[in-house]
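Teaching assistant here, posting this on the class forum so everyone can see the example we discussed in section. The complex has two components, and the goal was to see what a joint structure prediction looks like when all of them are supplied at once.
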Amino acid sequence: QSALTQPPSASGFPGQSVTVSCTGTSSDVGGYNSVSWYQQHPGKAPKLMIYEVIKRPSGVPDRFSGSKSGNTASLTVSGLQAEDEADYYCSSYAGRNDWVFGGGTKLIVL
Amino acid sequence: QVQLVQSGAEVKKPGASVRVSCKASGYTFTGYYVHWVRQAPGQGLQWLGWSNCNTGATNYALKFQDRVTMTSDTSISTAYMELSRLRSDDTAVYYCARVGGGYTYHFDYWGQGTLVTVYS
């Protein structure tokens, strides 16, 4: 299966909002409410930020939110903070017991 | 608290095999799946497959089906991933990650990663 498509980078000033997109197909993103988002700082393991498109795990700030329309999911970070600068990856169930990741987006806080 | 602790870094020659372990604690091991994900230097995440820690069932990404084996030992709450016929482009950090049963699709806890370096 092909990787989900994410923009290589996104940026914003502190306090602003930034949205990262994740585009797949009707066989993965569009076919299931299974999109999750992960934050990864350099040298660290990924951390779950959003699951089942819109849900936030305990401890994740409510500045992070998720949505989906058709075959494209989005992660929005509101009130950007310096510590939000990281790589972000989306993931989706792709049917037939397979999973797929996006290529990753580097979020830069200007 | 839930923890996944992986084995240490490995250096292997091309053509060899490597086995990475992932020891779970803080939850009922047999109630979850363990997935394996790798990340080549400077690259994104790539899904390798999963093992059901209760039944031993597995499913592998098509690209790795002929080279990867995922197992688990319930007596010591440890999952394993073995990759054979290593090539230089298998150099990566390998992560284990937990996924719940049923209609659960997200990786809620991750191991710290194991660097596997393949070079001659």
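For the discussion questions: The longest strand of chain A covers residues 86-93. Chain A touches chain B at residues 1, 3, 32, 34, 36, 38, 45-48, 51-52, 57, 89, 91-93, 97-104 (CB under 8 Å). Think about how each of these relates to the inputs above.
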